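Hi all, a correction to my earlier message: I attached the wrong file for Methionine adenosyltransferase 2 subunit beta. Here's the right sequence:
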Amino acid sequence: MSCARAEQRLVFNPGLVLLVQDEVLVQGPKVLVTGATGLLGRAVCREFQSNGWMVTGTGYRRARPRFLRCDLTDEDAVRRLLQEYKPDVIVHCAAERRPDVMERHTDAAVSLNVHATSMVSKEAAVCGALLIYISTDYVFDGRNPPYGEDDCPNPLNMYGRSKLEGERETLRHCPDVVILRVPVLFGEVESVMESAVTSLWQKVQEATEESCPLDHCLQRFPTDTRDVATVCRKLAERARQRLTFFRESHGSQDSHGKSAGWETALVKIT
Ligand SMILES: NC(=O)c1ccc[n+]([C@@H]2O[C@H](COP(=O)([O-])OP(=O)(O)OC[C@H]3O[C@@H](n4cnc5c(N)ncnc54)[C@H](OP(=O)(O)O)[C@@H]3O)[C@@H](O)[C@H]2O)c1
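and the right structure:
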């Protein structure tokens, strides 16, 4: 997306100084959102779009017609996508996040949650994009909440293990990655079963007078996808400002001769 910005300049003529206002077209920075067809990805796309970013979203089965279709488990497709598009920022939302599907189709799910994440990270490093990786509170065992950024993960199921493995892959290729470990999400759904929060409605509908299969001891912290999307956008903007500052004050190198990077962050949002 490009937007018009007013720029003022002084024009000096003999005996006359003029203040001239020009309209200049400014191209917004580019963000690539994987999993753009999903519950969180849709909110992330909307958030960046409405704040002047050029957004490219990718999906898989639901991609067309609004988004690019890219199977992230296909290494060549990921490489082509990133090399053609060259985003400034990547928000990597795509994942298999249903623990039961994960257990039943482990190889396919690991391929998406770990190998595709590794490939996205590798290509992010090549094109110098800031990577924001969406992880989960399932990396913890839940025995000693609340958890901080430095607490030791101990995932109890395949889903949590694959997301933690994904985190490690992002750190291996992009040491400056931003990892967000988000709790259960709610937001605008395409069907009530899309979110663990709204699917409660279905369970209540199906309940009989005698029973309703709900967990009565689990404590969770549902989080609005719009809030996560805003955090992603603000982190991206803050990191971009810092990079611009580094580039302007040190060229592309810092005082120790290393390339100026994004600030490493593992951020807790609850
Ligand atoms: N939902 C939650 O409560 C929750 C909680 C904590 C963390 N998270 C994390 O948040 C992120 C987003 O979750 P979500 O709820 O938005 O997930 P979602 O609604 O299930 O969406 C998953 C996304 O992954 C895409 N995808 C699936 N297979 C793919 C493939 N082979 N290649 C490319 N894309 C593929 C899907 O595309 P198509 O649908 O077009 O096939 C979809 O856009 C995930 O990383 C998840 O681990 C979610």
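Sorry for the mix-up. The first helix runs from residue 39 to 49.
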